[in-house]
Design brief:
98 residues, alpha+beta, Alpha-Beta Plaits, 4 helices
Length: 98
């Protein structure tokens, strides 16, 4: 066996290429968006969060508290900005609180 070819891609590069295409990337985005919501909003909001779903560029968040939903609705733009910063990409364009 000879030396490794310098043109060979590292495993990380191969995975990035693979993940960057198709369904796997979308699946990871969905998981990452949910985790970002829970981290950014903190345990207080997480306790009232029953479901987080990312569909295309819209994040749907189901909350069990109508009072909390009302409060959060005033800060949607800021929440979207914080989530996208946490995700290190502009993944979310719209936030729907239910």
């Amino acid at each position: 066996m000879g030396k490794r070819n310098t043109e060979e891609s590292s495993i990380g590069d191969v995975l990035k290429n693979f993940i960057g295409k198709g369904k796997l990337a979308k699946g990871l985005d969905k998981v990452n968006a949910k985790n970002a919501w829970l981290e950014v909003m903190g345990p207080g909001v997480a306790n009232y969060t029953t479901e987080v779903i990312l569909e295309r560029d819209i994040l749907y968040v189901q909350l069990s508290s109508s009072v909390l939903r009302e409060e959060l609705s005033y800060g949607k733009e800021k929440i979207i900005r914080l989530l996208n910063e946490k995700l290190s990409k502009d993944l979310i364009d719209k936030l729907v609180l239910r």
